[in-house]
Amino acid sequence: xxxxxxxxVYACLALAATAAHAEGLIISPLDLGTxxxxxxxxxxxxxxxxxxxxxxxxxxxxxxxxxxEINRDGSLGRRGTIADSARSGSNGATTRWFVNWADFPxxxxxxxxxxxxxxxxxxxxxxxxxxxxxxxxxxRGRSWSSSTVxxxxxxxxxxxxxxxxxxxxxxxxxxWLDGRETAAAAPGQAPGHDSHGRMTxxxxxxxxxxxxxxxxxxxxxxxxxxxxxxxxxGPRTLTAYRDHGTADLRNIHWLTLERGRWSAEHxxxxxxxxxxxxxVNGPALAAGDAGVLAVWATMHGEQMVVRAAQGDGTRFSxxxxxxxxxxxxxxxxxxxxxxxxxxxxxxxxxTAADAxxxxxxxxxxxxxxxxxxxxxxxxxxxxxxxxxxAAADGMALVTWVEGxxxxxxxxxxxxxxxxxxx
Length: 422
Fold this sequence. Notes:
Radius of gyration: 20 Å
Largest sheet: 5 strands, antiparallel
Oligomer: single chain
Distance between the termini: 41 Å
Strand content: over 45%
């Protein structure tokens, strides 16, 4: 798949080292030092310190999960390797990781300061036979524990699209898509996306001793390959995902955890999108002083539309449409922004007929549009992955994948307000 050259993709970020000022935001390119053959980026807030960006580095059959700290002043801090497929196997053998543009690793900083990261590792011969691997650092990335698997079924089926959130002290809560019910495939059929069993949504909590708690199934029928999300909003934890309903209805559903109990599932909005396959386009949540933002993509007529709704953790408003065009791809993410707003990103309409753009909008608490930006133009297709954004302390970091000399490369930009609104 051809990727765009460097000179084009930096058109909107001003390839010179100076920052671009745009409608109340200062957008500054940030070189993470990732180099070529890097992809699947993610970003986590490091409370009071800045951010931690992660990505996967490919070298033939070998894959590494690397990180770098981004300090509050925008400078780069320590960097290191979280896991390496050449170190994960026994006797020095290289393990088979599952590396995919849509199902990517992530990291979360817990309330006690521990870091927990995950990656995906093959556990069978079929294409979608892979498991989740979790590792923990108690010294800010200087050393990492042996990995553990948060699902106990042991089936060679899909387990991925993980979301993680701090769950108090040394505990991490995660949700994921779990394919154990697809193991009962039709005769002669490999388990996976096309088997008769349904994909499920499951949750568990892991403590510092690698013990699993609160293992539970949240939904018995979900899309097989759409990203999930998970946030804390005051006393509540919310998760959102794409459901698989009757006659292939693909609405976004959400659940709330409060006082130790998960609610029944709720429909975020009845979009009416029916499709006989997974659209690989999950929702995003952000929680802050302005409440909870949900952003998602759906089909409306012949075009993809990006929608947003605002809630308080118990209900959501009717949605507003942020964009709809022939080249809108979705792949959304979101972050709380200051005391009274949000940021949202997605892959949307570019200036060229065959291009998409990494779109960024600033919304107020009522979903009013404060500013709208195209950060970078990218080619359509899977190689661009899923851009990620996080925000804290008046600064945001967005990461994405672009082509440099024909090779995928992780890029990033820092975002700050150009006024004292934060």
